[in-house]
Each structure stands twice: as C-alpha cells, then as structure tokens.
C-alpha cells in the first residue's frame, strides 16, 4: 500500500470516528407502562456524546402474511426505512413464555422481507431485557441471538443488560432509579457505539 493510500484510509477512519452515530431502538412490548420501553427512555438519557437514539414503536405493525410481502403496509415501510437509515439497532424486550414476544418476532420477520431486502443486513445490534421475574428475560435474548445469525446482524456480546425484578427498579413514573442498571446501560451504549465504528472501518 502506498503512503497516499495509507493516508486516505487514515482520513476515512478519522471521518468515521467523528461521524455522529444514530441508533434505532424498539421494544418488544406494546404495553403503555412497559419496563422495556422505559429502558429505552433511560438509554436516551445515557447516550454518549455525538450520538442519537431514535425510538420506534411497533404499534400498528400488522401480522405478517407472506402473500403481502410485496405490497408492504405503510407502517412496515416506515420501520424498514428507519432501520436502513440507522447505524445500529438497540432492542429492549421482555421474555414471553421463555421466548421472544410475538409482537417483536412479527416485526423482525416483516423487516427481513421480501427475500433480498433484509433491512437488518450487516447492522450492529445490542440487547436489553427487563422482566418482573428472577431471570430478567435472558431466554428471549438468547433466542434473538439465534435470529441474528440468519438476519446477518453483528450482535454486541457484552455487557449483558438483564434487568431482573423490574418492578423494583423504576419509580411510578417509569424512571429507571436503579443506579447499577443505569451504569450497565451506559456501558452497553458506549460499547455499541465503539462496535459500530469498528465495523464501519472494516
Ligand atoms: C404472555 C406473557 C408471558 C410471560 N412469560 C414470561 C417468561 O417466560 N419469563 C419471564 O421472566 N416473564 C414472563 N412474563 C412477565 C413479563 O416479564 C412481565 O410482564 C414484563 O413486565 C413484561 O414486559 P413489559 O413491562 O416491557 O411489558 C410474561 C408476561 C406475559 C404477558
């Protein structure tokens, strides 16, 4: 590689390091008082500088029907566009019956279609889960990680944000009051931004 090429690469790297990062977040719960939606709101307050978290509500996404995958509903079009424009994805989800809630899996299935137009292709992704139980939604996270293989996403491994006994960690207005959980979310966001920048330079 010539000195000129090395310098050009270095400048590319510099611009990626300086470029602001946009993360798209969505929750696997439609519930108004959802702890997982509240985790995303907490994440908004904890984002690193020069980065932005946009939240998309899965409300309004109809049930997936493969007969319709070439006449995509408006709400799904919006979702697919937001995903494509984002540099990275952040999912906060509960666990329903030991797995991914139907609402979330349905939205992921839509965004992965039609064949050849998987909106998640190559995107970095990080996970959080909150549950009122003692396992914090961990099993939904493991099942999502399986889907990331076929979606060809790049999951962040650590830290794992698994919020157990969620009802004890928020105040009545949905503010995350647990300091340790806030710290680990902050770390997750820093790592996701670093991971995103690293993937862009490769
Ligand atoms: C249909 C259903 C199934 C559930 N299954 C589980 C489960 O397998 N494991 C778990 O930890 N909590 C389970 N829960 C409890 C959820 O963790 C709890 O309702 C949580 O608050 C839901 O997330 P949200 O607050 O974001 O809506 C279940 C709740 C529902 C409604």
List keywords for this structure.
disordered N terminus, 202 residues, globular, binds flavin mononucleotide, single chain, alpha/beta, six-stranded parallel sheet
Condensed summary:
With 202 residues, the protein is an alpha/beta fold.
The radius of gyration is: 18 Å
Shape descriptor reads: globular
Give a short account of the largest sheet: 6 strands, parallel
Portion of residues within helices: 40-55%
Cofactors, ions and other ligands in the entry:
flavin mononucleotide
Find the count of extended strands (DSSP E, 2+ residues): 6
The DSSP helix count reads: 6
Residue fraction in strands:
15-25%
Q: Order of helices and strands, N to C?
A: HEHEHEHEHEEH
SSE-based structural type: alpha/beta
**Oligomer status:** single chain
| CA-CA gap between termini | 16 Å
Low-confidence stretches: 1-15
- Summarize model confidence as the mean pLDDT: 92
Describe the structure.
It is a single chain. The protein is an alpha/beta fold and 202 residues long. It contains six helices and six strands. Strands 1, 2, 3, 4, 5 and 6 form a six-stranded parallel β-sheet that branches. Helix 4 links the parallel strand 3 (88-93) and strand 4. The longest helix is centred in the last third of the chain and has 23 residues, at 179-201. It is globular. The protein binds flavin mononucleotide. Residues 29, 31, 34-36, 94-98, 130-133, 135, 137, 166 line the site of flavin mononucleotide (FMN).
